[in-house]
Amino acid sequence: MIVARVISGAGKHFQSRFWEWLHTGMLFGASYAISQSDATFQLSPAYMFMRSLAFDGFWVAAFAVIAMLRFVALTLNGTFELFRRYSPLVRCILAALSALCWASIAIGLLQAEQSRLGLVTFVGLTWGELFLFMKVAEEAGDIERGYRNGSA
Predict the structure, then answer these.
(1) What is the rounded CA–CA span in Å between residue 104 and residue 110?
(2) Could you give phi then psi for residue 54, rounded to 5 degrees?
(3) What pLDDT score was predicted for residue 104?
(4) d(CA 137, CA 92)
(5) pLDDT in tens, 27-37
(6) How do residues 89-111 score in pLDDT, each as one tens digit?
(7) Which of 33, 35, 70, 122 can bridge 94 by disulfide, Cβ–Cβ 3.0-4.6 Å?
């Protein structure tokens, strides 16, 4: 019964949250790619910026944890009344953290003067996450105002 409700709830909102789902999947994929490429992460000048901030295992874990939390928030959002008030806020924070992940790769590519196509891609992902951050922040604000005004 609960599984059917989760699938139905996530499915009901999937289309309106498509870009969040897509970015979540890409973040999972990036986590996996970083975990599989020790030599690339250690040797490529494009990752020097990220290595200067933290070791590669941190980045693998950070990408995976942010993606997993976002997956859970997207799944629960709108499915259970209990999560209705706080899910958009959590999604908003996770979009900001995802933007930082993509930006860290973009900065490394810019500093290393490598892969202009990669740079455009990761800057685009960063801006996409910032757009999602603003969109979900509006949703979170609307829901919070509804609770404060007693109309939620």
Answers:
(1) 10
(2) -165, 160
(3) 93
(4) 6
(5) 999 999 888 86
(6) 999 999 999 999 999 999 999 98
(7) 70
Residue 61: what residue type?
A
Which residues touch 96 (CB under 8 Å, ≥6 apart)? 129, 130, 133
The closest of 61, 56, 63 to 38, measured between CA atoms, is 56
Determine the Cα–Cα distance for residues 99 and 20; give it in Å rounded to an integer: 12
- Are 92 and 108 contacting, i.e. CB atoms less than 8 angstroms apart? no
pTM score of the predicted model: 0.84
**What is the Cα–Cα distance from 9 to 149, expressed in whole angstroms?**
26
Q: What is the DSSP string of 6-23?
A: HHHHHHHHHGGGHHHHHH
Please report, in angstroms and rounded to a whole number, the separation of the first and last CA atoms in the chain.
Answer: 26
Burial 119-152 (b: 16+ CB within 10 A, else e): beebbebbebbbebbebbbebbeebeeeeeeeee
Joined tokens for residue 78: 């709108």
Q: Tell me the average confidence (pLDDT) per consecutive run of 10 residues in the chain, 152 residues long.
A: 60 78 95 78 81 88 96 80 81 96 93 85 96 94 85 62
